[in-house]
Amino acid sequence: MSSTQAESRPASRPRVAALLVVHNGEEWLSSVLATIAAQRYRQLDLVVVDNASRDGSAELLARRIPADRLITLPRNVGFGRAVAAALQHRAVAGADLLLLLHDDLVLAPDAIGRLVRAMVTDPTLGIVGPKLREWSADYVLQEVGMTADRFGRAESQLEPGELDQGQHDRQRDVLYVSTAGMMLRRELLRGLGGFDARFPAFRDDLDLCWRAWLAGSRVEVVPDAVGYHIAASSRLPRPPLAHRAGEARYLAERHTTAALLKNYSGSRLAWVLPVVLLLAVAKVVGFLATRRFADAAAVVRAYAWNLGQLPRTLRRRRLVQRRRRVSDGELARLFAPGLPRLRSYADAMAGWLAGGDTRALIDDAELDALDPEVDPLADRAARRFLRDHPAACAGAVLGVLYVAGLVPLLGPGQIVGGEIGAWPETAREFLRRYASPWNGEPLGSGSFAPPAQALLGLASFAGLGSAWLAQRLLVLGMLPLAWMLALRAGRLVTSRRAPRALGATLYALSPVLLGALAQGRYGILVVGALLPGLVLVTFRAGDRRTAPGSAWRAAALLALGLAAGVAMAPALGVPLAGGWLVALAVTAVRPGEGHRQAALRLLVAGAGAAGILLPWLADVVRDGGLAAPVTGNAELPLWRAVAVVPDVLPGLSDLAGVLAAVASAAVVVVALLVGMRSRPGAVAGLVAVVAISGIAAWAAARATVDWVWPPGLLLPASLALAVLGVVAARWLVTSLRAYDFGGRQLATVIAAVVLGAGIVGSAARVATGPWTALAQAPELVPAFVRADAPTAGPYRVLLLAGDDGGVRWDVTGAEGPSMVDFGTLRSADLTRFFDEAVGLAAGGADPSAGARLGLANVRYVVLASASDELIEALAGQPALEPLPSSGGRVYRVRTWMPRAVVLAADRGDALLATGDPGVTEGIEERAFERVRPDVFRGPGAGPDPGVLVVSEASSPLWKAEVGGVPLERLDLPPVNAFRVPEGAAGRPEVRAGAGARHRLVVTGQVLLVLVILSLALRPPGFTRRKADRHAVRTLPSRLSDEEPGRPDQQPEGSAPAEVTP
Amino acid sequence: MTAAGATGPPASAGPGRQPRPAARRRAVALLVLVLLAVGAAAVVDARMPRAATPPAAPVEQGPAEAGTWYCPAVAAEDESGMLTVAAVGRDSSTVTVTRYGGEGPVDDPALTIAPGDAVEVPLAAGEASQPVSVRWQGGPAVAHWRIDGARDSGAAPCEPAPSARWHATGFDTTLGSSSFLHLFNPFGEDAVARLVFATPDGPVRLVIADNQLIEAGSSRRLDLTELRPEETDLGVTVEVLTGRLVAQGEVVFAPPGEESGTTGRVLLPASPAPSLGWGFAYARAAEGSASWLSVQNPGEREAAIELRVSDPLPDSEALLSEVSVPAGGTVRIDLGATSVQPEFGVQVVSVNEAPVVASLLWSLRTGQGRRGVAAALGAPAPATEWALPGAGSDGRAGKVSVYNPGADAATVAVLAEGAPPSWSELTLPPNGRGFVELVDAGRGRPSIAVRVVSDRPVVAELRSLSSGESVGLWTNVGIPALDWTGPESRPPVRLDPSLRTRSVEPRPTETVPLLPPTVSPDGEGVPEPAPAATGSPDASGTATATETATADEATETATADEATETATADEATEVDAPTGG
């Protein structure tokens, strides 16, 4: 067609040149050509560019396309350059409009006509595109125009698998349309300079359309025009993308960045670019964490490419900005609001948390959904909401009551009580302590740091730098977490929400869990919160029917959960390990395909947990240095244990405790009544768990095992009782309906009433704040005891309490109890030393016992409570000076020695001979500075000869040197001492010498955790996008059945294309 | 019969499938096993009730290897003194005497004392005005402090430990007599103490007696005559508010009339705690001498006490009825006409569980007109081993008395270098008393280390009477072995991690400011005096000394005069054979 002919054409029937770019599309090329031939728009020319296909596409094209309409390129130059080559064709030169086509797109017969009509109707349009559906799923939308967030992430704004119900059938401006089916004015393309030749694929459409917008043209999606697209380049391994892993990501990433650099104004780029770079770093980290190394490398390569191409990019940028007609602000409406990626992350997280992918082992029928047409509550919004969202309603009520009970603990200041100490100022302090080869506080040793420190450190980042918030979240958030995990774990029983909400409520309100919080038994509390999740992932990992990806993810989570549980509450390690062993044994011995793989997953989970805990466990076994847990409440009668109602909360010791036990019995009775006929095995097993757990706790209480809090062993029973509640609630109505009214119904009603009363009573108890041991910022020691810390350096405070049971002691750092001490293995030597020194001082037989406390860096002794005998005994200790105190009786240790200091030779020798440091007034001035927990540095250079004393637990790890010359080690148990010789020159320094080995172990541990995390994030068998190769050779069914466009929609003069098939 | 009958609930009742009968049987079997397990546990629980967790047993500990004695009483500048240190163990003892003068504590060169020996450290005039402490290491040692004045001596064992409270009774501030309280703070921090007085009428609290500051490393001699004048049978409780103190009392009896009344000086040991019983091995009620008890009740309820003596007079009124001691007050009990023997042992027992403190005073008047007085704090508990430091036979008549307050006969041995064999086999019947004269161990010995051991708990006491111009009279109940060995056991000790987050319990005593409370002119802020108190502070916070003697006081004065009986020199120096009661 000549240009003269074009000029004489009516404006409503512009000539269209369709440019079909083919590359290895033989599989679906026939269908594509057929649909082009079926187009009803007559003013259509077709030019095909074969981009060096190797799969038979060339032969097919040779047979179907006239030679003068076929351009064969010797190599694949990419889409943009192929279009540029086609633009040279004479058939294109006379076209008004260009239609760019991919070789995996078929268009409805009226599609081109509808696109042309849009262009004719609105001259301001520069580019239009059709609505794209999935090739293999006719009604599923693939694209209705595209947008991006401000940082270039492409966003279709469609839900995954969203059906086309006409909801997007509105012609509207979009940021860009895909080049698959893109129609644009030939003059516009020429004016824009064509595609960026450096973009062989991906985001060339974004770049072109963005430039069109900047140049004053508009881009629209025309939903009336429909295409069916495979998106083979991104979904199927087609060369060259198949040749290199991560190539698609590489191209997308590099072209997106280049487009941003070219098209944003300077002011916008100034803040967008740093964010983009940060996101890139996060992406790289995420890819590495999920073992997607090729993707990580692709991101790095993309930025490297942009760096290398920066001059050329800037040249293109100058051209673009010179042609700019529209500001960034005017285009802001085209960009996705906020961060779409956050939404996708949130969606993924919500899906995971809701547990929709969990198969109910007992009741897998989705029965909640009701036919909306017969909904009896259709006009009762409140009741309908209550019925449809029972979990949300129950959670809201419980949350309000819980917060009401927490009011006294929500003010400023840290919560302290039981095992809970003050949170450090920053979460890094936990990790710093964990990474240190020396645990200095309160009686630390060179033992491996407890993994609980790392766990708390990582979790404390949730506090966003606020110790207050971190503590509230990680302490007070445990009960809500337990409720949510129990709700999610309830999916193992039933998919119905109401029974699950009841079970979660029963668990969260169980006396054991509430008692753990009330008494500040933090480790038990954390394990209690995690337990439902652990059970859930154990079942998922051990179930052969779980999808491989989910099963491995569950195994990884089980490994992390087991490690966290044992780390937080070592005493519960036995039942946790026992549960894991039972699951492993049951899975391994079951016949049938898949059980072996399931057992392997459980084995890997256990091994992973053991691997994480191994260094610490080895030290625990070697040193036996676990601090005894907070003692007390060892009394646990059998009836309380079996009824899971330990006396651990205010009010449970009297009638309320009996009523709570009756409520527990009611749960069991109802579950037996309604469950034994339909699910006898599960119900009997759960009852057995309650009984075994109760008997174990009762036995532990009788045996008076001092490192176990017997009620803590009732956690499995609490969970089993909650599951029985789920079972009862799930089948209560349907089961009772199967019988005539009788004793069964009567008993059930009575039990249900009792249970309801129990729940109400427990909820009321929560609202009253029964947190007996917790206090907000209590005065643990007088302020002046803490006030010396800035000048005196680190020191210890000995706490004493005396009563008829003897004398009890503990040691804290100068700042009082801190959570960075949580779980620290205590030095056995120092513990023995304190046992002996306190015993001698309290025994009144050795007036020098108090003086020896100074050697262990004890600066103050505080009587938490004391008998007259103890006070009298301490009065006989000349080294303990009683001080005026408003809080209690406080003594200053006159023989206090800094954590590291050099004593003069005579004093040092006397100390070595007697163990008595003597009065040490003014010794603070010579104290070493603590650089790190494992490093001390002396004041000035050239210390006087004497004895360097390091009041850390005696260990060969400690090395001292002056000016690089190591010092001779002396024997001064239970601390460390070194001889400073005459003439020593240089600044003295002391350090725990196992840093490299310790850091190596920590690094290995971190790597192992990363591997497990990676397994959880991207487990084996997990694929985000699955190749969909079926039925690509055939036309989409909708297309074959497509009704011809309605007459009123058919552009006038539409006619079959002038294509020779 | 149910609608579903034997076929069970319809499919809608369950999740869609019916359990197999075998599965149901297994479930029932499991439930039966569970029931059996719970039942077995219940049987075990019922048949083998959990024994109450026994309290952790005290931990045995060996004798102390070091200790310190504190000697608070100081002499006037012109008086001399004598510090006696005796090694009472099997090992030699290394002893360091520290003197607390104006320039801080100064250590004397260390002394090594062989087992069974005693060393006297004479303190010349001026030196005796400094309190001392005696540190020992190795074998145990005991210390004894004596002040030698122009007319009389005062002596007392040193104290083994400071205490938060001290109780002393037997003071007298009536006209001519002076009472002092020595408060010794040998430690590094200042101490603040409050005095509470006990009178026959009850407790008396004075603002000016509050917040007595005793600086670190010093001793303070408080003149009770200024604080509480014209009071006889005065008791004092020292409440240590901050810091630590060792307390001891001193009374100088000097009646206005030269020839009548109790005359002399005593050191009154203080007790760190009241007790339900007190024992004395030496009291004398004969011509020329009189003995009386001063009993203080520092508690808050009235104490009922009984008196027991060795060889009692059957019709003694003092022994037939209980004596009431008012809460916070004192009482004086005359020991005349209680025993058939002129010298006897005394036991004070509280019969209503209200602990008291008891001192025994004994006055002497010889035929030559020599007069003296002695006082001793009782032993709160009898013991099987005693040390009696300060004994000698160089111009002194020393007598070791032993009283067996128990219900079984006791065999007693008095150990001293040069002691005759008869000293090692004294047999004391129940409620019996015996004694030995130190002169039998050799005349002219300035220092004799004496220990008393027995197979039953007894009370041992040393009486010393100078034969020179000065009467030099004093008595001291011995030092029980517990004071130098320390307790045989100590409380069990264990690590308790819950302490770290437990709030410190407030002190049982009130918080006391370091400065005296401000007293407003209208008297606000001044503690209410006890109902029976006879003195009250004036508006400036100073106690008035204008009380008039009551009829009771007059009666007591008369009683004291009556007790000033004449005693012959022979009686004073007689050497009785052991009587065994």
List the SSEs and their pairings:
The complex is a heterodimer of chains A (about 1050) and B (about 575).
Chain A lengths: L2 H6 L7 E7 L3 H12 L6 E7 L6 H8 L5 E3 L6 H8 L3 H4 L3 E6 L2 E3 L3 H11 L3 E10 L6 E3 L3 E2 L5 E2 L16 E2 L8 E4 H7 L11 H11 L3 E12 L2 H4 L11 H17 L2 H24 L3 H16 L1 H13 L5 H4 L8 H15 L26 H8 L1 H17 L8 E2 L10 H9 L15 H10 L6 H10 L1 H12 L7 H12 L2 H8 L3 H21 L5 H21 L4 H17 L5 H29 L14 H5 L12 H21 L4 H24 L11 H22 L6 H25 L7 E2 L6 H5 L1 H4 L3 E8 L2 E8 L14 H16 L5 H7 L2 E8 L2 H8 L4 E4 L5 E5 L6 E5 H10 L14 E4 L2 E3 L8 E5 L7 E5 L2 E2 L1 E5 L2 E6 L7 E5 L2 H23 L19 H5 L20
Parallel strand pairs in A: 1-2, 1-4, 2-3, 6-12, 15-17
Antiparallel strand pairs in A: 4-11, 5-12, 6-7, 6-11, 8-9, 10-12, 13-14, 15-16, 17-19, 18-19, 20-23, 21-22, 22-28, 23-27, 24-25, 24-28, 26-27
Chain B lengths: L20 H27 L11 E2 L5 E6 L8 E8 L5 E9 L2 E4 L3 E3 L4 E6 L8 E7 L2 E8 L4 E5 L7 E8 L5 E8 L5 E9 L2 E4 L6 E3 L3 E6 H4 L4 E11 L3 E8 L10 E6 L7 E8 L4 E8 L6 E7 L7 H4 L2 E3 L4 E5 L8 E8 L6 E9 L5 E7 L5 E9 L4 E9 L5 E6 L10 E3 L3 E6 L10 E19 L7 E4 L1 E2 L1 H4 L3 E2 L2 E3 L55 H13 L5 H5 L8
Antiparallel strand pairs in B: 1-36, 2-8, 3-7, 3-9, 4-5, 4-6, 4-8, 9-10, 11-17, 12-16, 12-18, 13-14, 13-15, 13-17, 18-19, 20-25, 21-24, 21-26, 22-23, 22-25, 26-27, 28-33, 28-35, 29-32, 29-33, 30-31, 30-33, 33-34
Q: What can you tell me about this protein's structure?
A:
The complex is a heterodimer of chains A (1061) and B (581). With 1061 residues, chain A is an alpha+beta fold. Chain A has 40 helices and 28 strands. Chain A starts with a helix and ends in a 20-residue tail after the last helix. Chain B is mostly beta strands. Chain B is 10% helix and 41% strand. Chain B has six helices and 37 strands. In chain B, the strands form eight sheets. In chain B, strands 28, 29, 30, 31, 32, 33, 34 and 35 form an eight-stranded antiparallel beta sheet that branches. In chain B, strand 4 and strand 5 (104-107) form a beta hairpin. The longest helix of chain B is centred in the first third of the chain and has 27 residues, at 21-47. Chain B is globular and about 115 Å long. The relative contact order of chain B is 0.14.
